[in-house]
Design a protein that fits this description.
The protein is an alpha/beta fold. The chain has one domain: Rossmann fold. The chain has five helices and ten strands; from the N terminus they run αβαβαβββαβαββββ. It has helices at residues 6-9, 28-35, 53-61, 110-120, 137-145, and strands at 24-25, 44-46, 67-70, 83-84, 98-103, 121-130, 148-153, 161-162, 180-186, 194-197. An eight-stranded mixed sheet has the order 4-3-2-5-6-9-7-10. Strands 1-8 form a two-stranded antiparallel ribbon. Helix 2 packs parallel to helix 3. 31% of the residues are buried. This is NAD(P)-dependent oxidoreductase. One of its GO terms (biological process) is methylation. It comes from Hominimerdicola aceti.
């Protein structure tokens, strides 16, 4: 009988090590799905841009908006996205605020990214994360005290791309057993959060 390890349950190979700095790129269609439902006005910051997968779609939807992309690590963007490297989002002084922040944060720092984003954003904060973000006593107070407006749950599996590659080491598309969602906060929103499926 095959034994399931934690990595197997998460949809990963048990022999495959976790990616350094949690670089799992967001598929283009996942970003397109949220931007068709949430309109952004004004400046946009992508603080964990990786190779620019989210930023590429942002530029397609908002070609005339100010879009700033930064990341902790220096990576070449195959999409020609200008990404400022060596920027630790949690400590970096941007010396300004942005109207909107959208990103796929390292999951282990998701709470910190959310709280930091709410401080830096004037309007919306949009995060791509595993649905397990809803769990945990440590995050309970965050949910109770932040203006979470909508959680968009993917009805089909989304397959984040390990190290930005569309295929695994065997040349096959990534397959995940995890459920992902877009979490949307909006300043001045005071109602209960809603759940929608995309």
């Amino acid at each position: 009988m095959k034994t399931l390890t934690g990595t197997s349950l998460a949809g990963m190979s048990p022999t495959r090590e976790r990616v350094t700095n949690d670089f799992y790129a967001t598929p283009f269609n996942a970003t397109e799905a949220i931007l068709k439902r949430e309109k952004l006005f004004g400046s946009i910051l992508e603080p964990a841009a990786g190779q620019g997968h989210i930023s590429k779609v942002l530029k397609e939807f908002y070609p005339y908006s100010e879009i700033v992309s930064t990341d902790l690590v220096s990576r070449d963007s195959p999409f020609g996205i200008d990404i400022t490297p060596n920027v630790d989002f949690l400590t970096y002084n941007y010396k300004r605020k942005f109207d909107n922040i959208i990103t796929n944060p390292p999951f282990k720092f998701a709470k910190e990214f959310i709280l930091r984003s709410l401080d830096l954003a004037n309007e919306k904060v949009i995060m791509f994360a595993k649905i397990q973000l809803l769990e945990g006593q440590d995050r309970l107070k965050m949910w109770e005290n932040t203006p979470i407006k909508t959680i968009y749950v993917f009805s089909k599996r989304v397959n984040p791309m390990r190290n930005g590659s569309e295929v695994d080491e065997k040349g096959k598309p990534w397959a995940s057993t995890m459920c992902f969602a877009w979490f949307v906060w909006e300043h001045n929103y005071e109602g209960l959060p809603t759940i929608e499926w995309i």
